[in-house]
Amino acid sequence: MNGYMFYHLMIGIFIVFSAFFSATETSILSARRLAIETLSSRGSKRASRSLYILDHVEEAIGMVLIGNNIVNISATAFITYILTMAYNLNDTYLIAAT
After folding, report:
1. Which of 8, 70, 86, 92, by CA, is between 20 and 30 Å from 49?
2. d(Cα 73, Cα 27) in Å, to the nearest integer?
């Protein structure tokens, strides 16, 4: 094992979280309301919770996008840290890169 195994693991975790938030956004926007209402009327608790989310879609999408932004910004900062350590960049190079 090399010294970068932890860093690879953290980048993988960030990718998984980003995929989770993106998939959640897609599922909220592509949900079929009529099918969920039918399941809810039959007594499905999961469908009732899904209807609640669809009734408050603005808040749900807002929270998902905030979560996705936090994960993506954290991943970018982490990768920047890794690259500065790997290439021994000083402040002058960092200012030029950003």
Report:
1. 70
2. 23
Cα-based distances in Å from 97 to 11, 15, 22, 31, 87: 21, 23, 28, 42, 13
What type of residue sits at position 68?
Answer: N
d(CA 8, CA 13): 9
Q: What is the mean pLDDT of the chain?
A: 88
Which tens digits make up the pLDDT trace of 30-61?
999 999 999 999 999 999 999 999 999 999 99
Distance CA 2, CA 10 (A): 15
Helices of type H across 1-98? 5-29, 33-41, 45-55, 57-86, 91-97
